[in-house]
Amino acid sequence: MSVALLGSAQAAPATTDEAQRLTTLFQRYLGKPTDGQPSAVVVTPDGEAYKVDVDLSRIFAPFAALGLAEVKAGHYLSTLTPAADGTWHVVSGGLQSFTVTINDQTTIVNYGDSHFDGIFDPKIASFVSSTSSSNGSAVSSNTPKVSSSSKSTGTTESKFTGTDGGNGTVNAKVDQTLRDFTYALSVQTHADVGAPKSEKAFEFNAQVASGTGHIEANNLRNAQLLDLWAFLVAHPSKQQLVANQTELKGLLSAMLPFVTVLSGDASIQKIIVNTPLGQFGANNFGEHLDVGNENSKDALGIGLNADGFTIPADLAPAWATGLVPSGLDLHVKVGPVHFTEALQKAIVSADFGADKPLTEAQTNDIVQAFALPQNIVVTLAPSTITTPVMTVKAEAQMQFTEQMPTGTATVSATGLDKALDMLTTGAQTNPDAAQAFAVLTLMKQLGRAEGPDRYSWLVEAKPGSDILINGKPMQAAAPQVEPQPVPKPSQKPKKKPTPKTAP
Length: 503
Hints:
Strand content: over 45%
Shape: globular
Number of strands: 23
Helix content: 10-25%
């Protein structure tokens, strides 16, 4: 933020005039000093570079004035060196420790060694490249009733690239790597304010051998975001924002859509998590997020995958161990959901001077704009769930209407017979096992045999029609089986009375 719109640069000895220009520019985004107060940002010439000192406590002072939070932090130091091509080389020591107080909760954050090195291009108001690294952090939080502390170790490295996206936007990419990460959390509760004793209520720790992440954002409206930030800095009170809410709404609208495409992938390897319930683990865990905007129609995609998933031995009963998922590969897409249209309606309708900026009727109108029931389509791309004995695959597409969803789903499973064999003994004495046995038995009866221990189901929901399973109405496809009670281990089945014969 402190290098926003630096202006054209040239390699030459640093001057006091340029230092003053930079100071004035930074104050647009960091705030001008009040009468008798020093500036929150100080720029001084240093050879061919400029030293920049930002007082973070003064930057966050408006939050306290608005009654949101009190922030105490140190100084953010960086060096800016102009280059002959008009860009700026920016180097800083990285993250700073700080203390945040919100009501009766105080949180202290301390960072390990960190570093930032990047090239800023004023023509696109963005960095075109940068690298950063950090090594762990420690956080403590205290309230009269609860205290918590956490600590993380490991190295995180990030690489950023930015290119001109046209019309004042930027296309951005971020790649991250994580190595030898550990995290430990401890929470304590206090009986009364000032009580001398405390009881440890919760402990949690995790280890991750390695991890990677990748984020892409197309047509990111960072210049518009900077304009909004400068406006908020220049109007630090609610009264000022209300008095100028027409301009505020214009700045908010100019940011829509904030991105046209936002996608991200993250994966971590060799995970061990210790909780009060026991130890959980996985060989790999990954997630994917995809948000797109095309012709004002937004869509949201989410993906999850994991393998080698384990849970504490005593968390699942013996009869269920073969049914606990050990792997997952899930891909869901929802759309259109009209994020942009709903946000635009909210901006236009809001009255920031009212106790409730939006009326109930306006809120309902925004919800309708966000997700029109007759238009939402949920798509399940080919996905898989695995357990020690079963593999279930599915794909589906459903359109939600005001009456009922319509669409089709295709499901296949292998290992169903093995699962039933595994449950046979437990179902004789355990009601939960008996219920699981009944559900899998019904699935088998409804399914179409595709080979040894392999079954499939085609589920269809059509307008004005019953739900079909493999072409048959669901009620007709499901066999009518009278439920049988499960006898307790100590309970012997009653013998049927012997019919009497005539003398």
